[in-house]
Automatic annotation (TrEMBL):
GO terms for cellular component: cytoplasm. This is Probable dual-specificity RNA methyltransferase RlmN. Transmembrane segments: none annotated. It comes from Desulfotomaculum copahuensis. GO terms for biological process: rRNA base methylation; tRNA methylation. The lineage of its organism: Bacteria, Bacillati, Bacillota, Clostridia, Eubacteriales. Pfam families: Radical_SAM (PF04055), RlmN_N (PF21016). InterPro entries: Aldolase_TIM, Methyltransferase_A, RlmN_N, RNA_MTrfase_RlmN, rRNA_lsu_MTrfase_RlmN/Cfr, rSAM, rSAM_sf. Residues 106-336 form the Radical SAM core domain. It comes from the Bacteria.
Length: 354
């Protein structure tokens, strides 16, 4: 939580929570209520300069400028879909790295899909984010900053948050937990836990740890295969945490939180979309409170996978429903822009040719 200033290190305030801000302000000789004021400027109003914090004394703002950094992201690139329902952003970080975020407009509100890492080390075979490996995790403030930047650019209140951008959120556990603490707080954007979805490829110990916290967030598990033999190839973390460990952890999560699990299943032509695999998936999930989200695959250059034909998608969906599985096909948003996670960053970095 330190950044280099001119000749000294400065505290990164966006990486703190209210407790740490209170301790920081106490170190400056300030009472606790000043920390609350500062927190609201940072996390609720999205202040980008000390001058905006008009209810703080000028002398305090000058001291803050000497000892602390607000932090924030710069917009590198922005893509808007033809239907205007999706906006994809590439945000620059202070060290020159960049991350992707997406604004999605729905009938029920506006969702911000945010990244939790620069790159990813999970190695999922059809994902663009993992092509360059993991560069570094994001701090709590860098994750939060994406939501603020999207809200600032769109001029609209963000009502839902999806941790489904680049990176594995549970591989960056502590910063993600602090992000959740801040964004759901009264000094932050006060977004309900029930309006937050966290996606994971299946880090079983972290799923169990998250379950014990009993947060009312939706857990979305990137499943993509009904059997270990195929999932080992598509989602390599399955070799460490196979379905025999993953599914019991999901049952524990549902039991402790009272929330059903979402299973994400990207349909890949000739790979995981056969009728028999739909039946296999239905048997695998029997008795588990869940919803299956079938995803039309966004092709990624260099990966060699193709999306399933529409009739194949309908057939797969029909089989799941016939077998009593709650399932839907994800509505496609932003198909005409760099929709798959990691594509915009790689293109902008000159790592991929059109």
């Amino acid at each position: 939580m330190l950044a280099s200033g001119v000749g000294k290190m400065k505290s990164l305030l966006m990486d703190m929570n209210l407790t740490l801000l209170t301790e920081f302000m106490a170190g400056l000789g300030e009472p606790p209520f000043r920390a609350g004021q500062l927190a609201r400027w940072l996390f609720q109003r999205g202040a980008v300069s000390w001058a905006e914090m008009t209810d703080l004394p000028l002398a305090l703002r000058e001291r803050l400028q000497e000892t602390a950094v607000i932090g924030g992201l710069s917009m590198v690139k922005k893509q808007v879909s033809r239907r205007k329902d999706t906006v994809k952003y590439l945000f620059g970080l202070s060290d020159g790295q960049a991350v992707e975020s997406v604004l999605m407009r729905h009938s029920y509100g506006r969702s911000a899909c945010v990244s939790t890492q620069v790159g990813c080390r999970m190695g999922c075979r059809f994902c663009a984010s993992t092509l360059g490996g993991l560069v570094r995790p994001l701090s709590a403030g860098e994750i939060y900053g994406q939501v603020l930047a999207i809200g600032r650019d769109s001029g609209q209140r963000i009502s839902h948050v999806v941790l489904m951008g680049s990176g594995e959120p549970l591989d960056n556990f502590d910063p993600v937990m602090r992000f959740l603490e801040n964004i759901t707080s009264s000094y932050g954007l006060n977004i309900s836990y029930r309006h937050i979805t966290l996606s994971t490829c299946g880090l079983v110990p972290r799923i169990r740890e998250l379950a014990r916290r009993r947060l009312a967030i939706t857990l979305a598990v990137s499943l993509h295969a009904p059997a270990d033999s195929l999932r080992d190839r598509l989602v390599p973390v399955n070799r460490r945490y196979p379905l025999g460990e993953l599914l019991p952890a999901c049952r524990e999560y549902a039991a402790l939180t009272g929330r059903r699990i979402t299973f994400e299943y990207a349909l890949l032509s000739g790979v995981n979309d056969a009728p028999g695999q739909a039946c296999q998936l239905a048997r695998l999930l029997r008795g588990l409170p869940c919803h299956v989200n079938l995803i039309p695959f966004n092709p990624v250059a260099g990966r060699g996978f193709k999306r399933s034909a529409p009739e194949r998608v309908r057939q797969f969906l029909g089989i799941l429903r016939e077998q009593g599985v709650n399932a839907t096909v994800r509505r496609e948003l932003g198909a005409d822009i760099d929709a798959a996670c990691g594509q915009l960053r790689r293109r902008s970095a000159g790592m991929m040719k059109d």
